[in-house]
Design a protein that fits this description.
Number of helices: 13
Helix content: over 70%
Strand content: under 5%
Largest sheet: none
Oligomer: single chain
Structural class: mainly alpha
Distance between the termini: 31 Å
Amino acid sequence: MVAMLGFTIKKAFFDTWDHLLPIMGLNLLFLVVIAIPFSAAPLMAAATEPGAAVVFGLGLLVMFVFAGAVSEVIRNVTDYQGIELRELLAAFRRTYGGSLLFGAIFLLHLVVLGISVPVYFAMEHFIGLFALIVLFWVSIIWWLACQFYFPIRSRLGDPPIKSLKKSFIVFFDNPGFAAFTGFGCLFLILGSYFMPLFLLIPGPTGLMVWIHVAFKLRLYKYDYLEENPGSHRRRIPWTALISEDREKVGPRTFKGMIFPWKE
């Protein structure tokens, strides 16, 4: 298990490094997609707060639609193929419906939090505290489960609702792994904010690479259990299962990263 987690970090890093410029380009598009609707929010807020909320919601939905298309491209990266930006348009057509639905559910969750948290905080009663605790843990489970939605959609091709159900199945079957990937997401988000190239490295696309790599490798567990019924679910031969990917990533050195032609 430790070998698999360590290799997840290594593969995600080098998949990002090997496609650094295209990933930066996708991150730049991400910033444009986010900035256009969100920049209108202050203007809307000057007239009416509900108007700003509508603009924010639409911006979030646009971001999810774009993320769904990017997910299709990043799947190819984690499968050792190149990034073809022209594939984005075709990916939009395939994924926009499911991405909108997922974004709408995510937005609904934010609305529920925005309404219920102040109400429960204002309650000077044990019931309010209990409700906040339940809401906190439900939200944690939701966030840790939904990180697998886009990789499941892109890699397995399941319908949106089925992909969402599988996201929760992956979480409840692998809570420790889901927490590991969740902390990785948090690290990448903070890293993107504090890096010199704001949100361009690793940025949203690098975050997508991380989740795709993690889910791709985790799928080997289910392939193994399907081929070996009756095997212990906690005794997965990870070293053997990831051996082919290890060979494809290969040994890497700092010199080889900067000057690959000299290797």
